[in-house]
Amino acid sequence: MAGRPHIYPNTVTADVPESAANTETVINTLTGVGVEFAGQTVTFIAMAAITLAASTTAMTLRIRQDTLTGTIVGEAVAQTGDIAASKISVLTAFGQDSPGEIAGRTYVLTMQATAGGSAANATASSLVATVQ
After folding, report:
1. Which of 41-45, 62-66, 86-90 has the lowest mean pLDDT?
2. Cβ(130)–Cβ(10) under 8 Å?
3. Where are the domains of the chain?
4. CATH of region 21-131
5. What is the pLDDT of residue 19?
6. Structure confidence at residue 92 (pLDDT)
7. CA nearest to 82, candidates 92, 90, 74
8. Is pLDDT at 3 greater than 70 in this prediction?
9. What is the dihedral of CA 81, 86, 88, 92, to 10 degrees?
10. Which residues have a Cβ under 8 Å from the Cβ of 35 and sit 6 or more positions away?
């Protein structure tokens, strides 16, 4: 039925390490997102609890279409306010996409540290999409 929002919830993932220090890494995947009508928008809310390396100065979360190299549909600026070296920081990201009529698109949530001396670890993350 047109006009009704459709929510695509994601299960929480745990203990996903950064592939290498300061390297963008997929920490959550949301599959099967469908858009019935061309004018609809997909809105994303993402959260990640990340254990940071000792020298990390910022962390960036991104939401991308399809894969690690897909188009960015949401990007949090390099977040510095909630960053504490060797502690768990809880960060959020938001995004929107207007992909036209699609069935079964995949979106990913990624993290990338700045100045981390070693790899960060996403202790928990979630990615949720709503189509309206």
Report:
1. 86-90
2. no
3. 21-131
4. 2.60.120
5. 83
6. 92
7. 90
8. no
9. 40
10. 42, 99, 100, 101, 102, 105, 131
